[in-house]
Amino acid sequence: MPFLGQDWRSPGQNWVKTADGWTRFLNANESSYLPERNSYCRKEDYEKENIFNSINCDIAAKKRKKDQLNNKTKIQYFHQEKWIYVHKGSTKERHGYCTLGEAFNRLDFSNAILDSRRFNYVVRLLELIAKSQLTSLSGIAQKNYMNILEKVVQKVLEDQQNIRLIRELLQTLYTSLCTLVQSVGKSVLVGNINMWVHRMETILHWQQQLNNIQITRPPHKGLTFTDLPLCLQLNIMQRLTDGRDIVSLGQVAPSLQVLGEDRLLWKKLCHYHFTDRQIRKRLILSDKGHLDWKKMYFKLVRCYPRKEQYGDTLQLCKHCHILSWKGTDHPCTANNPESCSVSLSPQDFINLFRF
């Protein structure tokens, strides 16, 4: 008789339960007793067990398929149509309403960042979502958001352009996540808290990569910017819409620094971004009694939003309420669909989904 607690069935062997108790199950190579199925199991029970096994196999197969789909985090959720119908209420034809997360998944932002005309638009939209709309995204949309952000960072690391823009985006997102993680008990984030901590660590890693970028000077091939006549240099600088870019350009060469202090340059920049009423409220005089347009610009930036201008934007068709990128075909019944389209700023896009 075995000791108390000892399993008398040896490990590594197959045992079956019969009417007389447990019997060791032998394979065809062993010369011993092999019990028949009917000697220890009724037919009904045997068939029922096969049904249960089949159901369990189906469930396991579905679970593996779902896990495989969820593990493809690097692939954006793809839809054949590059447009979405924006509706805020239920009708006889359509039930439910469109959400920000659904629109974010459907509107091909992953490929839009590869287009230089749309890059700044998408980055600004990512920044606005990071500031106030991150919690309104579904779990799939949040995963899609992080995937697109990763593609943005990789693009900047490769071409070494728009570095400051992406630094500001990452800092905004990290600050928002710090606030949201502290409120995890209020169920403001979708997913496990450890997953979000890992994402915050990834953002810090991206920031470090951007800080370590060493911009290499291209090989000298002919004329450079400073070789152009001063009037052409000033004309090019007047086309810059960010005062910080003018300051950075002035640090390249002494001649550019002199052009970067031009009063007319900063005056045009102020009138481009701000109204006359806003400018009159923030007048600053220099030591010589003249208006210091450069100081006025940076003071105005802190008080009022700058004018936004993008090469390409999302458009909303007033006739059929379909949202799409410019140039994207959508099923519109209007005689002149182009006359029904209205360009949307990133903030206008966010406002569409505030109910």
Automatic annotation (TrEMBL):
Keyword Nucleus included in the entry's annotation: yes
Record keywords, A-Z: Cytoplasm, Nucleus, Ubl conjugation pathway
SUPFAM superfamilies for this protein: F-box domain
Compartments in which it is found: Cytoplasm; Nucleus
Pathway: Protein modification; protein ubiquitination
InterPro entries named among the record's database cross-references: F-box-like_dom_sf, FBX25/32
Function: Substrate recognition component of a SCF (SKP1-CUL1-F-box protein) E3 ubiquitin-protein ligase complex which mediates the ubiquitination and subsequent proteasomal degradation of target proteins. Probably recognizes and binds to phosphorylated target proteins during skeletal muscle atrophy. Recognizes TERF1.
Subunit and partners: Part of the SCF (SKP1-CUL1-F-box) E3 ubiquitin-protein ligase complex SCF(FBXO32) formed of CUL1, SKP1, RBX1 and FBXO32.
Protein name as annotated: F-box only protein 32
The organism of origin for this protein: Gekko japonicus
